[in-house]
# Entry
Amino acid sequence: MASDAGFALRKTREKRHVAGFTTNEQAQLRGCVAHRIVGLFIRRLRMRRPGVLVRRLKNSDLRDGHSRTALRIFYRKNAVVRPFAVLAVIAMSAAAVAAGEGPKPSRTETPLRTDLLTRSDRLTEDAAALYKQAHYADAEPLLREALAIREKASGPDDPDVAASLNDLAGLYRELGRYGDAEPLYRRALAIKEKLLGQHNPALASSLNNLAAVLSTEGRYNDAEPLFRRALDLRKQAAAEDDPDVAKILNNLAQLYRLKGMPAEAERFAVRALEILQKTSGPDHPDVAAGMNSLAQVYAAQGKEANAEPLYLRSLELREKAFGTDHPVVAISLNNLGELYRAQHRYSEAEPLCWRALAIRERALGADHPDVAASLHDLAALYAAQGRDSEAEPLYRRSLVIREQVLGADHPELASTLRSLALLYSAEGREDKAEPLYFRALAIREKAFGSDHPRAIESLNDLAFSLEIQGRYQEAEPLLRRVVAAVEHELGYDSPELAPSLNNLAVSLSHQERYSEAESIYRQVLALTEAAHGPDHPDVAKVLTNLAVLSRAQGRNYIAEPLYRRALLIREKALGLNHVDVATSLANLAALKAAQGTYAEAEHLYRRASKIRETGRSTPSMP
# Structure
């Protein structure tokens, strides 16, 4: 399921719109950013745009001696703007007194340096306009040039350089070039830490952005402490309902969703949306992102009724804000299509998934990770409908992109490996499925740990594949690991333990270890009856398995009442013409034939055949 690629404390400001470094964030770079503000102040005044800088001066702690000196020089040379210069000097001097700082050596603001920085600003603004239109590839050379200019004009450790590094890294993240983005984010953070120390709230945005790209790379354990540190620092400088606090909360919510921690994910996502709705208004794009995030958390928990209205509203807001063909809109389209697939609303899901894929291919290129996500989800939609020949090439294309772009150990690659393996298993192609199951398991154990639910899911998949191939002794230790993990996580009396126990019992029965299998089947029966009551179709399944086990031991007198009870449950719960009723009738008929009661067996067979031939049955329950 597609997600917003981490709130980068960006995207929604109208002025500084390039990924990662907004006007708000620049204002957070207190103290040492002052010389940058003054330099820009000078350049804007020469461009006859003093008002922009006055607003920025109000939002900064201008306490740097370089800036005060440079501004005084400019003040002497430009009497026409003297009132603005006076205001700035007062603001900086007051801040310096409050901070207990003395004057620092000045840095000469030469005409050449001013011209260079003016050009870098214009390049950045042009890139911002392209970024807003999702013309990411066109924006890249502008941001690279802006960075080179700032490094030449200001040196490698200047706040201007940190801003350009952050901008370029954010662009690379949008392009799916995570390996290029990470070192730039790290360098921007190092510059800030050098200038401001380890505990300044202005570090929050850089920490958040670096954590977001690590999370996108599947490095969840590396990302979490950075998100937490960003949240703590941001809260030091802002109120609890600050929008940037909300964005970090949202990123943490997505991290916990991906790690399989639904309670934590929901708590953070709910709080983030509350803040954004309060501070940004009901129609703001940030609110749309918050709604999308919470909807994803709800969908992951199976709360589909809660998720759908949030997805629909998010889509509406994003189309209004960005237009119908923006990659941000594709996120909402893809997620809504995934929700409809889970609800078996296939005809509604398919056009949404295709539209999302088309937008992403056009805006991001054919080899972008978001394109891989759309291909995967469209393949899953076809697989759910039994359209395997259409699903397989989509899975394969998604697999190639994810392996090339995300790397061989990324959790999203494991998801596609697993899905393609399940497709092969459904077609009886276990020779192709098994190695994919092994790879998916190895990736998930490395990424999440051997006891994580996703690793256990892959372990169960592999065991099932081995069982299908008749390799029951190889499957057994894997199944026992699954049972132990689920028991440890949920308790020995949890209904969620029943499927894992059932699979282990099946393996044991095939090895003719009947007494062990029967004991486990009876445990499954008790758990299922406790969870669903004695007349649930799942109870009928367990009764049927016990009956089959009894027949294998020649204990038909035990099997018959089990078969009859299973038949009664299915007739009552599913109706007389359900295919599962036909299965129970056929099982009982085979038993009666084995006992020599041929007339009754024939009657039962005829009933079963009639149900199957009429075509009035409904699909079997999973």
User: Anything to note?
Assistant: The chain has a mean pLDDT of 83. The chain has 29 helices and no strands. The CA atoms of residues 193 and 203 lie 7 Å apart. Residues 111-132 form the longest helix (22 residues).
